[in-house]
Fold each of these.
Amino acid sequence: MKTFNQPKPVFAEHGKRAVILFHAYSGSPNDVRMLCRSLEQKDYTVYTPMFTGHGTPNPDDILDQGMTVWQQDAADAVAYVKEKGYEEVAVLGLSMGGILAMDRLTQDPTLMGGGLFCSPLFETKNDVPVNFEKYAEMVIPYADLDEATQKKILAGVPRKVREQLQGIETVGQTTAGHLGKIKRPIFLAQAGKDQMIDPQTVFKTAEALSHVPYTLQWYPESGHVVTVGPERKKLEQDVFAFLETLAWKE
């Protein structure tokens, strides 16, 4: 069996301003680790939680969960940071993590602001199922499972991922319908070479946020995981600049 280095959440305590970074659908806190480190250096307290079922080599651990569980994970992450004494919290996320961050922002008026990176709130064409199938084939050799079990799991992935994606899309579209509830500034990042979703979808989100201050940044040379792409340094600078505009008390 190959060795699997399990990713872990990070809670890096620094200044009184706290930021939560949510990872992507088939991802882990590693998705946002470099952005986390960048914000730490700017004296932000940063939390990168891991959604239930993620961070293992068995794709069924993700596929056996759903958006209801992950919505609760996101709410729990905010509660955790506040229990630690950080009253002012911003939330941002990559892809599915961005949907969950925006979902929180529509429901929790105590949040300072936040946003998304390459997250499809509105209905759009996407290649998520095919990419998840590739991900499953890549990680399952690291699982402590016999070959027959691995093949059985992989055979079930196409159906399961498409069913799960429907739930993710439903939450995204519900959140899109509730964007009018947001009263805080929002940051939108979109990669121009996004191979997972239609990059133009971000403009629908921006239009629906015309009632609040928002920042839309375009990264023409980056792919879907913009947080680790060739323009990640620019993204890190842009996220920091956005956070500095929020109405922090401290």
Amino acid sequence: MWHVLHVAPNGEPQVCKYLGLHGIEGYAPRFPPPPRTKPGSVRDRRQRWVFPGYVFFKIADGFERWDLIRWAPGVRRMLQEDGDPGTVDDVVVDHVRQRLAERSLSQTRPTLRKGQPVLIQSGPLRMVDAIFEKNLDATQRVQVLVQLLGRSMPVELDAAIVGAAG
């Protein structure tokens, strides 16, 4: 059986490494890099977590050193069921691993239509109304039109920060 930790932002690698040093299997599933990504590039180094902020871990039967896990650097809390560590069946984690290996599990792109009003949710243009223009060839990038200086200007953004208005 697997258990789950809630970890600090971007703390997944640190927690998995710490667990490994203590003989505990840790797993933080990641989406593969987008197609045509050059090894070592900025896009390649960007972490794409399937479950951001969560790490699965597996321990041997009779494990007693729960404090080692609860107080590990980067751990916020352990998910629990009725006061005991919560469990996730091996089948679930194996299924996630299989889907990632087959590349049948991928990040979703927003389903926005050209001309649809959208809202930029973070960054320097946060809370600016915009009009969706198109998905770009680079995965997870979109182009929107924003009204600046009296005219519509195209802006390229991370798709994760753009949402349908209203």
Amino acid sequence: MKRRVVIIMGFVLLLVLALHFYIKISEQNPQFSVTFFNIGQGDSALIKFNNGQKMLVDCGPDRKILAKLGSALPFYDRKIDYLLVTHPDLDHYGGCVDVLNQYAVQEIITNSSTKETDPYWKIWDAKEKQESAEIKIITNTQEWFIGSSTLYFLNPDNSLNLTAKDTEGNNASIVFKLTNAGESFLFTGDMEMPLEEALEQKYCSTTLPACPALKADVLKVGHHGSDSSSGEDFLRYVSPKEAVVSVGKNTFGHPSFRVLKKLQRIGAGILRTDELGDIIKQ
């Protein structure tokens, strides 16, 4: 009996040691990547920085985000360094309460917008306040450095030429450009044409396509490919090699055939989550 106990304890010890070394080895050389999740009709992307930190940009509409994170992260990893909610539309923040329930979130980044008419908003607001995470509110342009990556926040920005109406809703989305090792990504939330035009006015030359601030290799297409976004000038200024459309089954007509044709005309490869599943860029 004692011998059996010793053997079992030895086996358990070996398993613990093996797990310890596995975790140490896997954490030694973290690689940069961006994964656009196939989350249904909604947005969610996971950025892994080469210093080991992680940023989740939006959470999709529901708890499906947990399965996505479970497949993208090791089973033992229950930490999200940054949870960024671009704006309070349910298809962007609906799964965030589940993320807070299952993961230790260090920082929550928002645009400070509220949606009191949405019953779920009260649940999210209460949960956010209960968390020990640091709350950061983007109210103006700023630059962050994480590992070898740079994030430049383009919106919200009080200096943009927007009407009061156009600073609310979708156009209050957090918009940022991410660069790493010469590759760039433009995250747009649900940005619509008034905000696109305001960014063009601030950052771009009158001569297309000269606009270093907006130019990006990968564009996360605004508002799921809606007709209200992706103006022709804006797409030419960004001039993406690839355009990611985060979309699922819907009754809104997303993505718009007109937007898809615009993307084809500028030579962008169109990557749709409803057709390709999770889209991973490394």
Amino acid sequence: MSEPKITILDDAQAVYVHAAEEIAHFAGEDICTHAQFTIALSGGSTPAAIYELLGTRFKLSVDWKEVQFFWGDERCVPPDNSESNYGMARRTLLTHLQLKPEQVHRMRGELPPEEAARSYEEELKAAFSIGDDEVPRLDLVMLGLGDNRHTLSLFPGHKRAIEETARLVVCDQVEADPPKRITFTPPVANNAARAMFVATGKGKAEAVRDILAGPRDPLKFPAQVIQPTDGELIWLLDKAAASLLPNR
């Protein structure tokens, strides 16, 4: 298991810029070594700020035609709904890039949840040319951290999703709005070359402390389940989000 690599910056804007720089660097590195970069995007306001930077200031820093876009989780809503993670990424990043349709692998939130989860499993298997007992290896999985310590759509107390080992993607009904979600299971995130958490603001400080310095209890603190088996675990924080970490 990887020890987390924690970077603490002055404020949220510095975190957004650093995250965009890191993503551009990872993309360049992987495109050079294996002619492709695969990334799973996350939802939320923090990623939106990062995507806007990637689509503007860093637009010329990445050979976007060699990037394949996936999603770590999705709300069960149509793609044009304001709650759609895909929709947010499309508005802030994808529409600024010249992409082919086959580069964008969205979770189909408009389908019945179980059908959407099964469909995305098949999408992953086809995109990565893997068999039924294999797990895709993404170059980067982006991750957020909820105040309730969830990441992806792995929520506290949801044992089936948190402890799933056979499925790549599952659906669940969670304590959030909208409640129906589709999500990567831990094996997919933990097989990535890099898993990157980004958290900013004082409101995230207790959650950051619990995940990084609290007792190990993934059912209570689901973000703890993210521990890449052969990859990097990256945390990008501002001073406010890191303020309750010991020795920081």
